[in-house]
Amino acid sequence: MPNIKSAIKRVSVTEHKTLRNRMVKSQTRTAIRKFDAAIASKNANAEMLSAASSAVDKAASKGVISKNAANREKARMARELANV
Questions:
Q1: Does 1.10.150.320 match the CATH number of domain 5-82?
Q2: Per-residue pLDDT reduced to its tens digit, 15-39
Q3: In three state form, how does the secondary structure of the chain look?
Q4: In this predicted structure, what is the pLDDT of residue 57?
Q5: Are 56 and 31 spatial neighbours (Cβ–Cβ below 8 Å)?
Q6: Which residues contact 19 (CB under 8 A, 6 or more apart)?
Q7: What is the predicted pLDDT for the residue at 21?
Q8: Which residues of 6-42 are buried (b: 16+ CB within 10 A; e: fewer)?
């Protein structure tokens, strides 16, 4: 446990940011899993792609995942939807 006041604050801030990042990443993964499940059952549509892409974009805008990772994920989902 840190003794310096600024170090104590950094620990607290890091815990809050880690919690938020974990929540955002979990929501993103859930949206992608729902889209993948719809693709597997051949019930996917453009609205589902839009929702999953939105979740990925939100994660990227908050810095949880990188822009390139977000674009790669969205391209993968769009390609899968086009092949269904």
A1: no
A2: 999 999 999 999 999 999 999 999 9
A3: CCCCHHHHHHHHHHHHHHHHHHHHHHHHHHHHHHHHHHHHCCCCCHHHHHHHHHHHHHHHHCCCCCHHHHHHHHHHHHHHHHCC
A4: 97
A5: yes
A6: none
A7: 97
A8: eeeeeeeeeeeeeeeeeebeeebeebbeebeebbeee
42: left (phi over 0), alpha (psi -120 to 50) or beta: left
- 35 token code pair: 């889209």
Say what the pLDDT of residue 30 is: 97
| Confidence at 1, pLDDT banded by 50, 70, 90 | confident
* 84 confidence band (pLDDT: 50, 70, 90): confident
Position of tokens 């974990």?
Answer: 22
Which tokens in the block code for residue 65? 């995942």
